[in-house]
């Protein structure tokens, strides 16, 4: 089973990618049947503005686009980590989701693949990214959102806490949400995999929901 974690921040060394690594090390790496990869959007700056005509033709953009889409096409399930920027999603993450539409991606790299949403805030926020992801991102990507999600508030504190937490506090409950949410993601991925090609074929009839 191949799981891809998307770190949605385009800031280098962000808390989002630190959280991606923490989830990978403490949950996915413990599962012998799972291979995992992290897409750190900060490493793909050309994807932030891939709608400009001149930029769209650049070799850098084409290389970055091909690499990211190759990872997404090879995934069985997706974890999207979305930091809250001014109450909204980071523009790099929005552009990545637009890039995964049928016309831009030459198909549906996320089509009928389960996704687990993670909202991130260094304060008491973090709910808006999850709401926005689940409200609009499936329309053109045709991904399938798991009902579970996680919202990591005060992320700097969460990143320095031991895993597993010795206490049944907010940190321990969040760790449990990641554990159970990702286990659910894997179950969805396993069940959807045999029928995904058929579902994607149907999705391509009306790829933009019209």
**Tally of structural domains:** 1
* Helix count, DSSP H or I runs of 4 or more residues: 10
Q: How many whole angstroms does the radius of gyration measure?
A: 17 Å
Low-confidence stretches: none
Overall shape: it is globular
**CATH homologous superfamily name?**
Flavodoxin domain
Distance between the termini: 32 Å
Give a quick set of tags describing it.
single chain, alpha/beta, Rossmann fold, five-stranded parallel beta sheet, globular, 210 residues
Mind explaining what this structure looks like?
This protein has helices spanning 15-26, 53-56, 59-73, 91-99, 102-105, 127-136, 138-141, 155-160, 170-192, 196-203, and strands spanning 2-7, 35-40, 77-83, 114-120, 144-152. It has a single domain, classed as 3-Layer(aba) Sandwich (Rossmann fold), CATH 3.40.50.360. The chain has a five-stranded parallel beta sheet, with helices on both faces. It is built from ten helices and five strands; from the N terminus they run βαβααβααβααβααα. It has 210 residues and is α/β, with parallel strands linked by helices. Helix 1 links the parallel strand 1 and strand 2. The two termini are 32 Å apart. The model has no long low-confidence stretch (mean pLDDT 93). The chain is globular, with a radius of gyration of 17 Å. The longest helix is centred in the C-terminal third of the chain and has 23 residues, at 170-192.
